[in-house]
Amino acid sequence: xxxxxxxxxxxxxxxxxxxxxxxxxxxxxxxxxxxxxxxxxxxxxxxxxxxxxxxxxxxxxxxxxxxxxxxxxxxxxxxxxxxxxxxxxxxxxxxxxxxxxxxxxxxxxxxxxxxxxxxxxxxxxxxxxxxxxxxxxxxxxxxxxxxxxxxxxxxxxxxxxxxxxxxxxxxxxxxxxxxxxxxxxxxxxxxxxxxxxxxxxxxxxxxxxxxxxxxxxxxxxxxxxxxxxxxxxxxxxxxxxxxxxxxxxxxxxxxxxxxxxxxxxxxxxxxxxxxxxxxxxxxxxxxxxxxxxxxxxxxxxxxxxxxxxxxxxxxxxxxxxxxxxxxxxxxxxxxxxxxxxxxxxxxxxxxxxxxxxxxxxxxxxxxxxxxxxxxxx
Length: 377
Fold this sequence. Notes:
alpha+beta, 4 domains, 6-stranded antiparallel sheet, 3-stranded mixed sheet, 8 helices, 14 strands, extended, Baseplate_J-like_C, Baseplate_J_M, Baseplate_assembly_J_pred, Baseplate J/gp47 family protein
């Protein structure tokens, strides 16, 4: 049995069907009293109340039973399941970026940039993770900077936006050279559950795929999918001992700082088997565009149908956005777009595309329109 397809409501310790409880209670009362109950009997009304309350108790019991298992546990109970396998929930992480410090041409003396030097973009503040020195021989210095606030607030600052030194340094200017990224809120139940189920893989010292995935996901809650494989030769043959880990984030491609974090985590001697050489990379991107024309049933409200189709596409694309290796299948797209009132979906693009496990399919533009023709159906 594939437990990953098991539905929550199918997991029960006792039956909580109201009709079954009511029938059993009535039958028990009639057997003991020798009286046949009619719907209007006062005993029947009392039994109805009892059966309803019994159903609530059984539902609570079943829910308590489900909360013992990581596949169905939520909140604090999921944290307790994680504690059993030494896998705590990941706390919120801070955004990171690389900040370039520049020494003015007129300044001839070396200048030390201390660790925790603060650079701001409005009210959002970043601080350097290490120190460095500027000098006439090296007038630029790149240092990693970490947002002082955890969560997503530090994400998305374009290159050059983080440029205000909290404490000005004579002759020195600073600005980020890439978009800040990597900030995430506390790990969600679904992501945490996936790591708990992977945790037993980490107990092995033989370098299984699941172990590398587990340790990669442990780095930052912004990571939403991981692929583990081997580097390959020009002929497509896997190279033994050369492990390639591909990381995808909730915001899309991982930043260089996040790749570096994962690389360091997986290179730890307590994680990496001695003979493995691990490299971490962003997935290769398969860009595609959506161009679809909807033929409606005669009389359908075009504005309502178009809005429903666009929402259906947004939901479909959101379900794929955080997955690696998701093939682009026109039939699936047509099915998603066939909202109420749509007679047919004419898909101009994309074409059927097989996406490799270490690739990421990304939709770059969407054009959903209504055909001038209608159909009676």
